[in-house]
Design brief:
Layout (H helix, E strand, L loop, with lengths): L2 E5 L2 H4 L3 E5 L3 E4 L5 E4 L6 E5 L7 H13 L6 E4 L19 E5 L6 E3 L1 E4 L6 E4 L9 E4 L2 E3 L5 E4 L4 E4 L8 E5 L4 E5 L8 H5 L7 E4 L3
Parallel strand pairs: 1-6
Antiparallel strand pairs: 2-5, 3-4, 5-17, 6-16, 7-15, 8-14, 9-10, 11-12, 11-15, 13-14, 16-17
Length: 210
């Protein structure tokens, strides 16, 4: 998939609506009970960028970004203002925010991830588009200084250690992140009259798998 490593204008995504969706297949049995299953391991996020437009200048910015991406052709980074960091809302990013693995003395590569909930029903979401300058990594409870034996692949969200963490050492990380996404339409349909009257165009954006 073609991916442009550029973020959708954050001031426009700030007013957008949207969030995660799941796909659940439900079969009602003859006795009235249900069987529920899902073909998706991970949720997928959808947004409407149209409600974030406030002026004709915003509309011009959107159209320029849309044309650069060639509509649906190229994916891009999207900032989900409701969910863009590893820790709790209002708290600074810290190296202990998320446990991303446990050392076994051999593994050197760990995937950034964010866990929702606790216990056996918790959901672990892979993070593939971190904001590189925001990442802090911990090993056995101690923060590792940038460049001191650990590297981050910004294209995949993988953390790579020069030396494998010791057996039982928790590998932790804190970070901000973007959602890989694309436009979910190949046409922008907007009237200046309706836009000036306060009617927002529909600009669907959908998360993509990379």
């Amino acid at each position: 998939m073609d991916f442009h490593d550029v973020r959708f204008p954050a001031k426009l995504s700030f007013g957008a609506t949207g969030g995660p969706e799941r796909r659940t297949e439900i079969v009602t049995l003859s006795n009235g009970f249900e069987e529920r299953n899902t073909p998706w391991q991970h949720s997928r996020r959808r947004y409407d960028a149209g409600v974030g437009l406030r002026s004709l200048s915003d509309l011009e910015t959107l159209i320029a970004f849309f044309e650069e991406r060639r509509g649906q052709l190229h994916a891009f980074r999207w900032k989900d203002w409701a969910d863009f960091r590893s820790g709790l809302f209002g708290h600074p990013v810290g190296c202990l925010d998320q446990v991303i693995g446990t050392g076994d003395g051999e593994t050197r590569t760990f995937q950034l991830a964010k866990t929702y909930g606790t216990g056996p029903t918790a959901y672990r979401r892979p993070i593939t588009k971190p904001v590189v300058d925001s990442i802090v990594v911990g090993r056995a409870g101690e923060e590792i200084a940038p460049g001191a034996g650990v590297e981050v692949d910004p294209a995949t969200g993988e953390i790579v250690f020069d030396a494998a963490p010791a057996v039982g050492a928790l590998v932790t990380a804190g970070f901000e992140f973007d959602v890989p996404a694309r436009f979910d339409m190949d046409r922008i349909d907007v009237s200046i009259d309706t836009f000036n009257a306060g009617q927002a165009p529909n600009i669907p954006v959908i998360e993509v798998r990379l």
